[in-house]
Design goal:
The chain is mainly alpha-helical. The protein has two helices and no strands. The longest helix is centred in the middle third of the chain and has 104 residues, at about 15-115.
Length: about 120
C-alpha cells in the first residue's frame, strides 16, 4: 500500500487510468510510426544516392565516349585532309610532267621540221 503522501498519485479512478493508458498507447503508436517513417526516409535517401551515383557514372561514361568520338573524328578529318593534299600534289606533278612532255615533243617536232626544211 502506498504511503499517505503518495496516495493521491496512485489512487485514480478507472476512467482516469483508462485515459492515461490510451494516451500512453497513442504515444507508443506515434513513436513506432515516426520510427518507421524515419527508417523509410533513410531507405529512400539511400536509393536516391545510389541512383545519383549511377547517373553520375553514366554521365562520365557518355562524356568520355563523346570526347573519344570527337578525337577520332578529328584524326579522321586530318587523315582525309592529308590524303586530299597528296592527291592534289600528285595531280599537279602529273600536269607538270605532261606539260614538260608536251614541250619536249613540240621541241622534237620543231627540230625534225627544221631538219626536213634544210
Amino acid at each position: 500500500m502506498p504511503t499517505p503522501e503518495l496516495a493521491p498519485l496512485f489512487s485514480r479512478r478507472p476512467e482516469e487510468e483508462s485515459l492515461i493508458m490510451k494516451t500512453f498507447v497513442l504515444l507508443s503508436v506515434l513513436a513506432v510510426a515516426m520510427t518507421a517513417c524515419d527508417s523509410r526516409e533513410r531507405e529512400i535517401n539511400a536509393e536516391v544516392r545510389e541512383e545519383k551515383t549511377a547517373l553520375d557514372a553514366d554521365a562520365k561514361t557518355v562524356d568520355r565516349q563523346t570526347r573519344e568520338a570527337k578525337e577520332q573524328a578529328e584524326i579522321e578529318a586530318e587523315v582525309d585532309k592529308v590524303k586530299i593534299e597528296a592527291e592534289q600534289q600528285m595531280q599537279k606533278a602529273q600536269i607538270e610532267a605532261d606539260k614538260k612532255k608536251a614541250e619536249a615533243e613540240a621541241e622534237a617536232r620543231k627540230k625534225i621540221n627544221d631538219l626536213r626544211n634544210d
